[in-house]
Amino acid sequence: MDYLSKNIFEIHKALVNKEVTPLDLVKEALEKIKKDTNNAFEYVYEKEAIKLATELSNQEVEVDNPLWGIPFAIKDNFSTKDIPTTASSRLLEGYLPPFDAEVYTRLLNKKAIPIAKTTLDELAMGGTGSSGHLGKTYNPWDESKTRMVGGSSCGSAVACAAGIVPYAIGSDTGDSVRKPASYSALVGFKPTWGKISRFGLFTFSASLDHVSYFTKNVKESALLLNVLGGHDDKDTTSSSLPMEDYVAAIKENKEPYTFAVIKEIYDDLKDETIKKAFDSLIEELKQKGHKINTVSITLPIAEAIYPAYYIISSAEATSSNANLDGIKFGTYKDADTYEEMLFKVRTEGFSDRIRRRFVIGSISLLEENQEEIYLRALRCRRMIVETLNKVLESNDAIILPASPTIAPLFGDDTPKKSFNKDADISDNYLAFANLGGYPSITLPLGFESKMPFGVNITSHHFTESKLFNIAQVVEDITGLKDLTKK
Amino acid sequence: MKKVSQKSLLAAAHNLMFDIDEVELQVLTEEYADILEAIECMKNIPNIDHVKPMVFPYDLVTDYLREDVTEPCLTQEEALKNASKVEEGQIVIPKVVR
Amino acid sequence: MNYVAIIGLEIHLQLLSESKLFCGAPTTFGKAPNSNVGLIDMAFPGAMPVLNKKCVISAIRMVNALHMELDRLIRFDRKNYFYSDLAKGYQLTQFFHPIGKNGHLAINVDDSIKIIRINHLHIEEDSAKQIHAKDKTLLDFNRAGMGLIEIVTDPDIRNGKEARIFLEDIRDIAMSLGVSNGRLQEGTMRVDVNVSLKVDGVDGEIVELKNLNGFKNVEKAITSEIKRQKEIVSSGKSVKPETRRYDEAKNETVFMRKKNTKIDYRYFADATIAPIRISKELIDEALNYKANKKFKVDFLLPETIDEINNDPYLFKLFSELKEEGLATLKVSNFVLTRVRSEIKRHGSEKLLEIENDLIDLLKLYNDEEITYKQASILYKQLLESKKNLDSLLEENGFSHSLDNKELSAIIDEILVKYNIAVQDYKAGKDKALNYLLGQIYKETKNKVDSLKIKDMLLMKLEEK
């Protein structure tokens, strides 16, 4: 029986009704992992998961804890004690972290069962799911193995989309969960910056990093926030604002909402199928009494989102990853002097793509460039965020297609350039929610040539419960939920 | 607009303690030129040079400070578990000259 | 030729605390190597820093003792460089916003008072300990992440003796406030000295003296370095910018290395630590600390100090003044000339009655809101009339403080009038703030406490 393609609440019900045990679930997951050909896994908890599941199978099911006894996957840039953690970088092969990330601890406390660490673009820097040390991760919806699932949280997207686990944890610094969600018919959610503790998430760009996750419907997404959200003394940037019950907050009778469609991003859309699907969603929203405003953020601001994101994230990344020297952990290389050793470790340990991005980040911080590059990007960030704050003050949410295309084909040169100046606005705008730290959710919107594409909704800081309600409205209209590629 | 110099890009790479080969340097030079172009375009945003740089995504201030009490830290074994070479509790690296 | 030695000091004090600056790992001295290590000390990926309250309190105490402006918002920056003792590849420090700025310390050199200005004071973390063996280097991260404060003086010191006295005073203050034990030999206090020679008004190249392991040696090293530089210049050559150490046996400084071309540390704001607002309560907690039982300041003669400690009234008054940050040379002189004579005349009972008003009065005097003469008149009136300070100020028309509403109106006016400066400030030009403050001071004619003005101005700018 296939239980893991069901949603969390269905699986939980099956556990409560004793149709299935945690051990059955773990075995099913391990079986599916063995058969999976999408290259999504860094480490599989074979023995550990069976041991934990066996223990749980002898215990009473916790009826009010829907995560109890259910396997999950987590991106390999979360620290997991004594479980290999590589961030898909050669440099970190063999690293056994001495501690658990806060989100991982919270899941373990709920008796959720970790089943796998998943692949990512090296150090979470990238959007193709092809730059990690294990190579390309494929889109499960594409049997020809020619299309990406997107990145950087590629492995977690696969684990969830292929029905191996009902939910998977990722991280989102630019769009690393919300974009792959669009390519794989999943719900991808990132909360307000500070809503979920980042303790134990490998720092890439602290001012943009978010813990995020994939689920198959909106209610599951709300459920996970109940478990993962809330202040943590170990991460001082985590918010002390009170938590809500986000599942209970999803109401049956919803008020009419006001949506903003950003003109510059919408106008950039070229794919007719996606445009049509989006237009008809908007039409249905209007018919249901919701209000749609087309707003302009001006072209220069829309165009600046991607470069501002790229510069800020690269600058922070070059510094955040300066701890990778092979001395305390990671792959060490012998040499005669300290400098030589460091050169070997870092030249051989990072892919060329990462090295180039570090150089760009570093050079933008040099005294002679800082004002013109790094600080201008930060000023730009303020302009973008202040503009969006205004939009979100007079609208409940911004709604747009999450990607202007279905999952792209892997090109020969996919990992070559990491900054593409000709990139479409509509293909790179999702980082606006990282620059501003807004809660943002991607949901399935439709299919083109049997490949999925999604819609993204973004709301103001700490309005997660409203965002889930709005997402529920959209999910009810599209009827697209609990989708897995079988 | 700023000029792209391969020499300075290479120097920046070496400062970060790694090397890049000539092919990579060529790609990097193009990428950097693209970045500079994008930076130039940012000037089209009115008033861009007159706003304060934004470090955090929203105004963030806390008054939380950790009380000065010790917590269990790593044991020596845990601390050194991932180090490649250890002698008498210390990590050994090639001689540092400086 | 006319020579003047120009000397500035950079002092690191290791802070006394149970746990490290950014994590709960203990700071116990002498433990087995790498057994006092927290996650952040070895930069394990995903570790996050959480600032130690005690270290902040220590910094606030030093900022207060050195008469510095306190930055009420604590922020950290990353200083980026690769070195084997630096686990993260960057040091968390306060480059853009040091916790303390623009202070001074008065030192007593041969019975005359000299003011040494202090440029800034910031909090940062210590690095790992390295042992360089013959063919390898050994690393111990126990020291990594210990809290430090760095105190940087302006180049106001002119000779080795002044430097030694200044350092001893800093050590005494740090010890008496429970901030650091300040031992040069053990490295809980470390000093770098910048020495240059101004010849006929022209600045010379700076030589940095490092690895100085005793107060006497600092003095001797500077004395011999000045001598060396004079000899070079006299012989028509020029001093090279370099780093030197002190050879005790030879009593001379010895070449260590050339000064590298300036290293670009690519400083930028760290976003792993949320900015921390220093609350009024925290300041109170930091400053209400009863330090040493005996009152001591560095700029008064030992006999005078003894007299203060032996007179209950003076002892109480000076202790309070010290807590208020008013134990300055200026105020001390006023108290010693004007107040001391009144003790005999009125007896200390009467004096105790007006003590609070006296302290307020001394604050006005210290802040240059009233003159010495005005202060004297007011003091006399306080003793002789039954009126309080506020009404006396009003009566004499010396000063009258503006209330919040009046102040608010003035600031609003200035902000409209100097909108360009407001825009500059918003754009990150910090100088604009000083300009605005200057305009407000002018308008308020120093009738309002400058900190209050600054607070209100900052609040209004935030809202803009």
Walk me through the structure.
The complex is a heterotrimer of chains A (486), B (98) and C (464). Chain A has 486 residues and is α/β, with parallel strands linked by helices. Chain A has helices at residues 8-16, 22-35, 46-57, 102-109, 154-161, 178-183, 218-228, 263-266, 272-287, 299-320, 338-349, 352-363, 367-370, 374-394, 425-428, 432-435, 464-478, and strands at 41-44, 71-75, 113-118, 168-171, 187-190, 211-215, 258-262, 291-295, 397-401, 440-448, 451-458. In chain A, strands 1-3-2-4-6-5-10-11-9-7-8 form an 11-stranded mixed sheet, with helices on both faces. The two termini of chain A are 13 Å apart. The model of chain A has no long low-confidence stretch (mean pLDDT 96). Chain B is mainly alpha-helical and 98 residues long. In chain B, strands 1-2 form a two-stranded antiparallel ribbon. In chain B, strand 1 (86-87) and strand 2 (90-94) form a beta hairpin. The radius of gyration of chain B is 23 Å and the shape is flat. The mean pLDDT of chain B is 93. Chain C has helices at residues 53-65, 160-176, 215-234, 280-287, 302-310, 312-323, 329-346, 348-353, 355-366, 372-384, 389-396, 404-417, 419-426, 431-444, 450-463; strands at 3-14, 69-70, 73-74, 77-80, 90-93, 100-109, 112-125, 129-132, 136-140, 147-153, 189-199, 207-210, 242-247, 252-258, 268-269, 276-277. In chain C, strands 2-6-7-10-1-11-12-13-14 form a 9-stranded mixed sheet. In chain C, helix 1 (53-65) crosses helix 4 and helix 13 (419-426) runs antiparallel to helix 14. The longest helix of chain C is centred in the middle third of the chain and has 20 residues, at 215-234. The model of chain C has no long low-confidence stretch (mean pLDDT 89). Classes of the chains: A alpha/beta (486), B mainly alpha (98), C alpha+beta (464). Chains in contact: A-B, A-C, B-C. Chains A and B meet through helix 10, helix 11, helix 12 and helix 14 of A and helix 1, helix 2 and strand 2 of B.
